[in-house]
Write a structure and sequence with these properties.
17 helices; 2 domains; 4-stranded mixed beta sheet; alpha+beta; globular
């Protein structure tokens, strides 16, 4: 058995997030022989090999691993960092690796998992040298970490335990901790998205990662409950699948939040597993030449019984009617909804006539769903009515059909009130 001491607590830095995600993934696949608490994890020595053995058995999980498109950039490519990492964990390759993104490296590990070493006692700690941040307690026999590990150096984020930002430091680590970070990227990876090209601007490539919030991570570990940890990991995977669809539809973050908070399937899964809440953070990281930068983070707080459900029941007067209303609202914020099509036209040279009112309707609904403010619900109905009215005078058949769509939804909603 190997004891991993957790001397760095979960925080909002990307580096710490991916390491903890990797640890949780390793735990998930070794729960029958492991124990854990907020300050240490005890795992079988064969844990890494068992994880990859499970990946081979689960085709969907294997597909997720090898589809991680996070690229090796800058010095990663110049010094063949993938080859160095593989060699450091006992999987040397002949010549240059030719690996360009993390999914390819993970595929090599999947195909050679029997060569992975036993786990040994170690500590999750950050140490500083004159020019590097070291992950782990060793200062020798370390390997450089990929550029994606260094994304915090371009932010104001700080690791409280180290009391430093990463602006002046490269990142290296014991091979085990670098591998755990790569597993964390695999566990948190949602999708690569290339933004539509605008004029002469080069389209940016964004990478999205979904993490548990630091408090959620601590709660999972402090629970010492294998079933609780397993259920939360499974639920996060469900959310990742939903997010992938939403992000690929090029939707604003407000619509993504609304769609998730209105998703009755997610609520049902939380309730079935007797989980009150699931607090997540969505990171958008953009490749800029030889580096990565965090562009924004979005908090996703999901509940089995959101507060707005109580407000809906008061508005409708019954739980049955509130469930019907919730179903209507949920359908209206899906990527294939005419309301969303109208909002997406705002990026075009000639936006749809109802686009402004559709967007205002969305923001009012956001106000209601996220903050539980009933004025947002009535504002949503008002703006939806305005959007319908504007389109009723249009000759274009597309707009006439959308006006009829708005009219049908308003009628359905009125029947629940």
């Amino acid at each position: 058995m190997a004891e991993l001491k957790l001397l760095i607590k979960p925080d909002n830095t990307f580096l710490t997030q991916i390491i903890y995600e990797g640890l949780l993934l390793l735990l998930q696949h070794n729960l029958d022989q492991s124990s854990f608490h907020y300050n240490k994890i005890i795992l079988p020595s064969y844990s890494l090999r068992k994880l990859f053995e499970n990946v081979i058995r689960d085709k969907s999980l294997r597909d997720e691993f090898v589809s991680v498109r996070t690229a090796f950039v800058g010095n990663d490519k110049k010094y063949d960092l993938p080859g160095q990492i593989l060699k450091s964990v006992g999987v040397p390759l002949k010549g240059k690796s030719g690996i360009t993104y993390i999914g390819q490296l993970l595929e090599v590990l999947i195909n050679n998992y029997t060569k992975l070493p036993d786990l040994r006692d170690s500590s999750l700690i950050y140490k500083r040298t004159s020019n590097s941040l070291i992950i782990g307690s060793a200062l020798q026999d370390v390997v450089s970490a990929p550029q994606i590990f260094k994304v915090d150096r371009y932010t104001g984020f700080t690791t409280a335990d180290l009391n430093t930002t990463y602006n002046r430091y490269g990142v290296k680590g014991e091979p085990f901790w670098v591998l755990i970070g790569l597993l964390g990227i695999a566990s948190s990876y949602v999708v690569q998205y290339r933004e539509p090209k605008s004029g002469s601007k080069v389209s940016k490539i964004s990478y999205y990662y979904l993490f548990f919030s630091p408090d959620e991570m601590l709660e999972m570990l402090a629970s010492r409950n294998p079933k609780y940890l397993y259920n939360l990991m499974t639920l996060k995977r469900i959310v990742v699948t939903k997010l992938r669809e939403l992000i690929n539809s090029n939707l604003p973050s407000e619509i993504i939040i609304l769609s998730l908070m209105l998703d009755t399937n997610i609520m049902a899964e939380l309730a079935k597993n007797e989980i009150d809440h699931l607090f997540l953070q969505l990171y958008r990281v953009v490749n800029e030449g030889n580096t990565y930068k965090i562009y924004n983070t979005t908090l996703l707080n999901l509940y089995s019984t959101p507060y707005y459900l109580d407000v809906l029941e008061k508005i409708t007067g019954s739980s049955d009617k509130s469930e019907n209303l919730l179903s209507i609202l949920n359908k209206m914020v899906q990527p294939n909804s005419p309301l969303i099509w109208s909002i997406n036209s705002m990026d075009k040279k000639n936006k749809d006539p109802d686009a402004d009112h559709a967007f205002r309707a969305l923001m009012e609904l956001y106000r209601f769903i996220v903050y539980g403010d009933p004025r947002g619900f009535y504002g949503f109905l008002r703006e939806l009515t305005n959007a319908k009215t504007i389109l009723e005078g249009e000759k274009n058949e597309k707009y006439k059909n959308r006006a009829r769509y708005y009219s049908r939804r308003l009628t359905e909603i009125s029947k629940t009130l």
